[in-house]
Specification:
Elements (H helix, E strand, L loop, with lengths): L7 E3 L18 E6 L1 H4 L3 E5 L7 E3 L20 E8 L8 E2 L1 H5 L10 E5 L10 H4 L4 E2 L1 H9 L4 E4 L22 H9 L4 E4 L4 H5 L4 E7 L10 E3 L3 E3 L1
Helix pairs in contact: 4-5
Length: about 230
């Protein structure tokens, strides 16, 4: 018999027509195609990018010949890990090696490392959420890959900062997204982006261990997928 977890914490943002998406993406289109009252059954159609809402990246996201999600075993998308308190990093800050290394003794090889910046408090079509979020420096990504991390999660839109241009906002960082992503993806470290509730996992401690799940749909030949992420305590 398996023991049930003491607590299960949902780590996902919702998916509906009103959610924020990456500023250069079109909005989600979720609509009813059939209604039970009219057609005898209800069914919806969803149109959105694979890197939308709480999602993971595969190496193919930045590496032309990189592995796609279906090339990993399902075990790649779950594992024991740790939440780290990053709530003291600032607006648009690049999380650096020193920010993570203060917890270096607590990080184990093979861990799913979750970075709790607290940025989910700004979730929505806000400047903070869409453009001014903390993200990884290239050196921090290299450090985490060298430590043997299995996956890196963050409660912001991306492990890489906003580097683009839209009419309402220019770049918020000088760290190119490839600098944040490539050290992870080149080492098959899976980024998990747009998480929430990592503070509920961490509680009052600076770090806390848990078992994390972030499985994608069984898409073939894709660079990413929305996921149903949660933590067992």
């Amino acid at each position: 018999m398996f023991d049930s977890p003491d607590e299960i914490i949902d780590l996902c943002n919702p998916i509906d027509n009103d959610i924020p998406v990456w500023p250069s993406f079109p909005p989600i289109d979720l609509k009813h195609e059939s209604l039970a009252a009219r057609d005898g059954f209800t069914m919806e159609k969803v149109t959105m990018r694979t890197h939308t809402a709480t999602h993971i990246d595969s190496p193919r996201h930045f590496i032309p010949e990189g592995r796609t999600l279906d090339e990993f075993p399902i075990s790649k998308f779950m594992g024991e890990g740790i939440v780290l308190d990053m709530t003291d990093v600032g607006n648009s800050a690049a999380i650096d090696v020193d920010d993570i290394d203060r917890y270096g003794d607590d990080i184990q090889s093979g861990d799913v490392v979750m970075l709790n910046t607290g940025w989910d408090q700004y979730y929505g079509t806000t400047d903070e959420w869409m453009f001014e979020f903390p993200h990884l420096s290239g050196e921090a990504s290299e450090y985490l890959a060298d430590r043997g991390a299995k996956a890196i999660g963050i409660d912001t839109p991306s492990v890489g900062g906003w580097y683009g241009e839209v009419p309402g906002h220019g770049p918020s960082t000088d760290v190119h997204p490839a600098d944040s992503h490539l050290p992870l993806l080149e080492n098959d470290v899976i980024p998990i982006e747009e998480l929430r509730n990592l503070d509920a996992v961490r509680g009052d401690a600076a770090t806390r261990r848990a078992y994390f799940f972030y499985p994608p749909l069984n898409f073939q030949d894709t660079s990413g997928s929305s996921v149903r992420a949660f933590a067992f305590l």
